Amino acid sequence: MTTAAASLAPAMAQDAPAPQVLGADVLVCGAGVAGTMAAVAAARAGARVLLLERYGFLGGNATAGAVAQFNSWQTANGRRVVAGLAQEVVDRLRIYGAAAAHETFVMSTGHRMDRVEYAPEVLKLVLDDMVSDAGVQPLLHASLLDVQREGARVTQVRALTKSGIVAVRPRMLVDASGDMDALRKAGASFLSLEAGEALQPATMMFRFGPIDFAALEAADIGALARRGYEEGALARAALHVARAPFSQDGWFNVSRLAVDATDAMALGRAEIEGRRQAWCAAKFLRHAVPGCAQGRLQAFGTQVGVRETRRVRGEHVLTAEELLAPVAFDDAIAAGAYPIDIHPAAGGELEYSALGDDHAYQIPYRSLCPAGLDNVLAAGRGISASHKALAAIRVMTISMAVGQAAGVAAAQAAAQGERAAARAVSVQRLRAALLDAGACLA
Questions:
Q1: What is the pLDDT at residue 352?
Q2: Residues 89, 34: Cα–Cα separation, whole Å
Q3: pLDDT in tens, 17-49
Q4: pLDDT at position 121
Q5: Contact, 401 vs 336, CB < 8 A?
Q6: Could you read off the pLDDT of 151-166 as tens digits, one per residue?
Q7: What is the CA radius of gyration of the chain?
Q8: Closest CA to 273 of 244, 246, 300
Q9: pLDDT score, position 19
Q10: What is the pLDDT of residue 14?
Q11: Could you give the C-alpha distances from 50 to 147, 169, 207, in angstroms and in order?
């Protein structure tokens, strides 16, 4: 060490502030839509809630990923299976004039689906309003540093912030980070991919316009998508678009990025490749797709939208067979009807297993309870489910329903005191609270 460096080192160490220590009944790590719903639900149930998020806004894939549509609210014949806080999000978006009507449509791949299109930027405002109204304390621009545990209990979570290290000592932790970073740092067990399985690829959303939507909708989109893929202009044979409400622009979901998003270097390469794929797709739209000749690429998503990384091993591993049966769970805390929709890491197609007209499935509370940890719950795409089951339950409507359940359960557990435990929650009481809040459980 040089003399100058040696003289600086003690001063730097002495100047480092002591970590700020905060208490909370419930700490939610990750403020995507699952985490935000968990935080709001817990606060409304009376808990003191801290919501940790790496960006300066909430919403995850719904805002940073710019998915721009909430899919799958109902069965094929129209029976509602997702409501509660998810519906409140849409209701609040409509007050801002930022959500379209619920509709059924046919994708460019030929599959029928229902959705609500929304404005990702305005969703940031809606989620701000919901956490503020509920009394949630957001901790934005905060990156998870480490997790401490004693036996089966998480005792402290530390985060890096602009003001230094913040240490949180929660009674209950909800990991809704998508990649399950808090659970990984806590030493949780995770599920492995089976033979022949691969992580679902990510997507870089992009905004393009203006579009003559009447001309676009009259075109043979399926044939154009196949042509674009065969010519190398599209990364997959799809031209999925969600119209930005009350505009002539659309958000396109057409790229395919095979990536393990928990690998920092690979994730960086995927972001760069995603923008390249989006630019190529925008050129194809302009030159080959009816209604798009006057359009230009307007914006990229803040980040690639990630479909799958880590899946925690829970008290129950939800399987595709259980979804397809469907199995009725005594501890069901959410329902869904989105099909098993696997995007292969390579190739232009997808594996899509449609469900029956009135087919819906349930998600059990035990799939939110990580094995070997007492005061922790999981929410969002990292809950305990097989690769194929995750391909159905990963969508944002279902994630919001699961997040709401995790938040109510965390608040009920935290009310037990310092020895709060997820497994001590009365499932009957939890289900009753969710039904009272307008959730669908079957």
A1: 78
A2: 12
A3: 788 999 999 999 999 999 999 999 999 999 999
A4: 97
A5: yes
A6: 999 999 999 999 999 9
A7: 22
A8: 300
A9: 84
A10: 54
A11: 15, 10, 33
Token representation of residue 432: 């009753």
Average pLDDT over residues 256-270: 97
d(CA 438, CA 401): 10
DSSP secondary structure string, 232-262? Answer: TSSSSS--EEEEPTTSS-EEEE---B---TT
Taking the C-alpha atoms of residue 215 and residue 267, their distance in angstroms, rounded to an integer, is: 36
The CB density around residue 69, as the number of other CB atoms within 10 Å, is 25
Residues 298-319 have pLDDT tens digits of 999 999 999 999 999 999 999 9
Residues facing residue 21 across a β-bridge: 167
Task: Spell out the alpha helix ranges (H) of 199-245.
Answer: 213-218, 221-230
Residues contacting residue 441 through CB under 8 Å, at least 6 positions apart: 332, 333, 334, 335, 362, 431, 434, 435
Coil, helix or strand at residue 385: strand
The answer to whether residue 108 scores a pLDDT higher than 90 is no
Q: What is the mean pLDDT of the chain?
A: 94
Residue 397: alpha-carbon gap to chain centroid: 9
Instruction: Identify the pLDDT of residue 5.
Output: 47
In this model, does residue 387 exceed pLDDT 50? yes
What are the structure tokens assigned to 100, written together?
């379209």
CA dist 78 and 405 (Å) reads 23
The pair of three-digit structure tokens given for residue 229, joined into one six-digit string:
């893929």
Residue 261's identity, in one-letter code, is A
Q: What is the full DSSP assignment across 348-375?
A: S--EEE---TT--EEEEGGGGSBTT-SS
Interatomic CA distance for residues 402 and 390, integer angstroms:
13
DSSP notation for 88-150:
HHHHHHHHTT-B---EEEE-TTS-EEEEEEB-HHHHHHHHHHHHHHHT-EEE-S-EEEEEEEE
Q: Provide the CA 112 distance to its chain's centre, in angstroms.
A: 22
- Burial class for 265, CB neighbours closer than 10 Å (0-12, 13-18, 19+): exposed
Task: Note the Cα 17 to chain centre separation in Å.
Answer: 34
Which tens digit of pLDDT belongs to each residue from 212-259? 999 999 999 999 999 999 999 999 999 999 999 989 999 999 999 999
Backbone angles phi, psi at 410, to 5 degrees: -65, -40
Residue 12's nearest CA partner among 4, 20, 24 is 4
- Stated as kind and residue range, the H or E segment containing 406 is helix 396-414
Q: Are strands 49-52 and 137-139 parallel, antiparallel or unpaired?
A: parallel
How far lies 319's CA from each of 200, 337, 359, in Å? 17, 14, 16
Mean pLDDT calculated for residue range 388-407: 97
